[in-house]
C-alpha cells in the first residue's frame, strides 16, 4: 500500500507540475502582450515626432530629359526623364547623438538628438554631363545639392555652406526616389570645377540611426552618451569604445567595398535599419532585390541601435524560460526535506509552493514596468522568499526547517539573477548549477534504501546499518 500511495503521489505531483506549466505559459503570453503594447507606443511616438533616421548625402543631382522623334512618322514624339548624380570623392561625417528619452503612458522609448557635420568634396562634377541615348535633344535643370532623410520631421535645423557662402535651402529633394529631405540650388558652377560643401544638421530620431556610405571614401565618427549600442548595418566600426559614459565609434568605407554608389546612381530607395524584433536581431538583413529592379533599396548602410539590455519584457521573458526548471528544483528540495525530516507533505502544499514560485514572475513583470529591473527583482524575491519561509515552517514542522527551505529558495533566485545577467556564460553557469544540485541531492540521499522506502522507509548510516 505504501508503494502504491507513493506512485499515486508522484502522479499527482506530475499533474500539479503540468498545471503550473499552464500558469507559466499564461504569464508568458502576458509578457508578449505587454511587448506588443510597447511596440505600439514606439509606433505612436514615431508617428507623432520622428522614427529611425537614415541619412543619404550630400550629393549633387540634376534632372534631365531627352526628347526625340521616332523613325516611324506615325509614332508620337518620345521623351525620357532621368536623374544624374555626382557622388563625393570624399565624405567625412562627425556627429554626436545623445539620448533623448520619450515616454508614452508607462512605456519608455529610446530616442536621440544631436548634430551631424558632413564635409564632402568633389574633384569634378563630370558625372552630371548628360548623354543622348536616342540621338535626341537633351535638356537639364540646374544642379542642386541633395540630402535625403528617412524621416524629415526630425530635422530641427540645417545649414549648407560652400566655402564661406551659405546656400539657400529648400524642402524636398526633387527626386521621387528620395521624397523626404532637402535641396539647395548650385548656380554659377561649371561641370569641371571642384566643389567642397559643409552640411550641418541638427536632428532627432528614435532608437536606430543609419548612414549610406555614398562616396568614393567615407569616414564616419559618431559619439553618444548611450552606453549600450548595437552596431549593425553592413559594416562594423573599425574602432570603437563603449563604457558606462557612452560610446564612440569610427567607420571607414571605400567604394571598393560597397555597392552604395551604384545603388544611388540606379535610383534605389533608402534602406531601413530598424531592429527585427521578431528575430531579436539588431538589424534585419536586406531583402532580395527584385529582378526588374522595382522596389529595390540600397543594401549598404552604417548603423547603430540603442539597445536596452535590461528591457523589463525581454528580461521577464528570459526569466520565465527558466521557470519550470526552478519549480521542479523547488519540488525536489521539498521532497528531500520531507524525506530527511520524516514529515509528510500533501500534494496541495506542493501546489501552493509552486503557485508562490510562479507568481514571482508576475510580480517581477508588474514591478519592472515602474521600477528598475534590479529593484523589481529584489522586491519580488523578498515577497516570494518571505512567503515560502513562513509557509515552509508550518509545512515542515519547524522554523529551522522553514528557514532552511527559504535559504534554498533564495539560492535558486540568486542563481536565476546571475543567469539573467550573464548572456554569454548563461549556458555554462546553468549547466554547472544543475550539476551541483544533482551532486548535492545524490550526496544527501546516498544512504537511503530506495527498495525499502515504500515499505516504511529506511535510511542507512555511515556503516551501512538501517536507522
TrEMBL record:
InterPro entries registered for this protein in UniProt: Uncharacterised_IM_CreD
The protein, known as: Cell envelope integrity protein CreD
GO cellular component, one term: plasma membrane
Keyword Transmembrane: yes
Keyword Protein transport: no
Organism placement in taxonomy: Bacteria, Pseudomonadati, Pseudomonadota, Betaproteobacteria, Burkholderiales
Entries under Pfam families matching the protein: CreD (PF06123)
Keyword annotations of the record: Membrane, Transmembrane, Transmembrane helix
Organism of origin: Roseateles aquatilis
Transmembrane segments: 322-341, 348-367, 373-392, 399-419, 425-444
